[in-house]
Design a protein that fits this description.
By secondary structure, the protein is of the alpha/beta class. It has a domain at about 80-105 and about 225-405: Rossmann fold. The chain contains 19 helices and 14 strands. Strand 10 (about 245-250), helix 11 (about 255-265) and strand 11 (about 275-280) form a beta-alpha-beta unit. The longest helix has 18 residues, at about 105-125. The protein is globular and about 60 Å long. The structure holds pyridoxal-5'-phosphate.
């Protein structure tokens, strides 16, 4: 598959170039040249097909022929080593739990898939001299998933920047205890400072020889595998309620996950409506109301993985609807909720059903409830994007309950933290050049 830049001022590239570059030279996001719906038989028989095979069918056209079918199958098998259960919360309301991976964040799948694709290309080129460095800024969750996904992948080094004192203890341990090809840089500053340093590094010609790439959802190899979730949810729903219309509510920050859901719909998955549920960082809900896209600096909330004021992937969603807002509105709505509403929803869910939702999932629940008012007979699914333990303090305070720490988290809590402290862009550059 060839990819073009959404800024339309750069040459088309292969999948390999798109993943290694991350972003096009004209600063545009890469987008596939073509999207072919799947064979209707695959959708009709989805309940009889294994997750690995569904994933292969869904992503094959975007990767082939550069990665052979056999290698792609093996990459998928190594990526999908955990479950994606659909759990009933209320009548006609389900949640798709995306937190059963090694770091208990939904970003595990994209990170593991991207890491294995990069590893595959490196192996092909026998190139230790072509080492790639994945540079990533994190407010908490992305870093852990990327670090874990890339751990031990040959020819790929990972450098993670995180704001000192501003990530949770669990998140810090997940970032700083892996060793091997993973290095954590502890930045005295905020997440925005980390992000600015990373952006500067990508544009810095004196760092060209370091082969820097990104591992956030701008990268096609991290974005596209998120389509799998919607297929896995549909597979489980089809067994329960084959006749009902389906609404997905996706807690959204950078809008990569929901954009992948719309890709799944374009591939033929019968989804009726998408809700992009946000916290008070409401650039997209405002756009849907006014038609004006006006990014603003992000504001801090309890659903902090969605504190994004300028959602990068929304431009991909617009491309999928040929930049026609009226077409978009037919299958897409976006609503924003405050921290107060989020906590209230967490309590409501817990009291009604005993289910413990994290703040991100609760925002998804709120958006779903709102959309179901327009279509009360539909079947709704909200995505649970992180395990509540990742947001332990807020969840325990709000629900007045104790959360048991899962095994994969306990394991890292005992390990020794290792980080390098930096405080300026010059420090970052010095580190990258000194390796
Ligand atoms: C990253 C993240 C999100 C937002 O996903 P996008 O693809 O950026 O919209 C939501 N919840 C959690 C827990 C996350 O880590």
């Amino acid at each position: 598959m060839k990819y073009y830049s959404l800024n339309k001022n750069a040459a088309d590239v292969s999948f390999q170039q798109a993943i290694v570059q991350g972003i096009a030279p004209d600063r545009g996001l890469y987008f596939p040249k073509e999207i072919k719906p799947l064979d209707a038989e695959v959708i009709a028989n989805i309940h009889k097909i294994s997750n690995e095979n569904i994933a292969f069918q869904a992503i094959h056209q975007f990767i082939s022929p550069e990665i052979s079918d056999a290698s792609l199958k093996s990459i998928i098998n190594q990526t999908l080593t955990f479950d994606f259960p659909l759990v009933k919360v209320e009548k006609n309301i389900y949640t798709l739990e995306l937190f059963h991976g090694p770091t208990m964040a939904f970003k595990d799948v994209g990170a593991r898939f991207m890491a294995r694709c990069l590893g595959h290309f490196n192996k092909q080129e026998h190139a230790t001299s072509h080492n790639v460095t994945v540079l990533v800024a994190t407010s908490g969750d992305t870093g852990g998933a990327v670090a874990n996904g890339f751990l031990g992948v040959k020819g790929v080094n990972v450098v993670i920047l995180y704001p000192s004192g501003k990530v949770s203890d669990i998140q810090e341990k997940q970032l700083t205890t892996l060793g091997s090809n993973i290095t954590a840089l502890e930045v005295s500053g905020t997440f925005d400072d980390c992000q600015d340093m990373v952006k500067k590094a990508f544009l810095d010609n004196s760092l060209k020889s370091e082969n820097l790439t990104s591992a956030n959802s701008i990268n096609v190899a991290r974005w596209l595998p998120q389509m799998f979730y919607f297929f896995f949810a549909y597979k489980q729903m089809k067994k329960l309620h084959p006749e009902k219309e389906i609404i997905f509510s996706v807690p959204s920050g950078n809008f990569g996950n929901i954009c992948a859901g719309i890709m799944a719909q374009k591939l033929g998955l019968p989804i009726n409506h998408f809700v992009a549920s946000t916290n008070i960082n409401d650039t997209v809900p405002k756009f849907m109301a006014s038609g004006k896209f006006e990014p603003i600096p992000s504001k801090a909330t309890i659903s902090n993985a969605m504190d994004v004021g300028n959602p990068s992937n929304f431009i991909r969603i617009q491309e999928l609807f040929k930049n026609d807002v009226n077409e978009l509105k037919k299958t897409f709505s976006s609503y924003s909720f405050s921290d107060e509403q989020t906590k209230f929803a967490m309590k409501e869910i817990f009291e009604k059903s005993g289910y413990v939702a994290d703040p991100h999932g609760a925002v998804g629940y709120l958006g779903l409830k709102k959309e179901l008012e327009n279509n009360p007979n539909a079947l709704g699914v909200f995505l649970e994007t992180a395990h509540p333990v990742k947001f332990l303090d807020v969840v325990e305070d709000t629900l007045q309950t104790k959360i048991e720490i899962p095994e994969q988290i306990k394991k890292v809590l005992h390990q020794e933290k290792e980080s390098i402290k930096i405080s300026s862009y010059e420090d970052l550059k010095t580190y990258l050049k000194s390796r």
